[in-house]
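User: Can you predict the 3D structure for this chain?
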Amino acid sequence: MRRLSWFNATSLTIGFAFLYLPMVILVIYSFNESKLVTVWAGFSTKWYGELFRNEAFLDAAWVTLRVALISSTLATVLGTAAAYVLVRGGKFFGKTLFSGMIYAPLVMPDVILGLSLLLLFIAVGLDRGMLTIILAHTTFSMCYVAVVVSSRLVSFDRSLEEAALDLGCTAWDAFRSVTLPIIAPAVISGWLLGFTLSLDDLVIASFASGPSSTTLPIKIFSAVRLGVSPEINALSSILIGFVTIGVITFSITTKRAVVRRRREENAT
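Assistant: Here is the predicted structure, written as structure tokens:
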């Protein structure tokens, strides 16, 4: 095993400090007694109480959560279907155009995508609200799901499907019983990616949202323009906490699954 040199250790320390030190400072100042975010006046949790009494932030968080759940689910279904067609559909008329349209949102700037969706909603007479945000987030999240799932389908052993078909399964039964469980990690990863992208989106949501459907990133951006308040620090600390718990839980679950698989392999 190679020893960690001083250069690598220093570079690693500086890199992690650059990434995570601002988050640590933000969490610390979320417990600041003072209303001034740059002046420490003692430890207090009152801003968390103020945050949970702020109806505007709570409504925006609820809208964001519903949009993320619905759009990521729709994007997973459509993206998985698109990936299956691209990988298993063979050659068909318009395949190049279809694949280009699937992958276009990956390289298209968010401003252009948001503006084009806004013009589309205006052209069809669709009032901006939660529905338009869901449609917009589904549109750009679907391509990420298609990329993740198609990469798994490319390396999929089709002999397993053929064996299921030889045993009397229909094409749908073979997909549901054999293919889908094997590609499930990729499908779940695509859903989590779409959910994260929806929670984080600001630019596209600002074009697709209406007065009664403000998402949390839009609300935070509007509040920060008037000055950073301790409530923003408290809200950001809660989000950091949720992400940290999710990452730790996922890591522990994955490690236990690997250990269990190794035990089963050794037992056989």
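The chain is about 80% helix and 0% strand. The mean pLDDT is 85.
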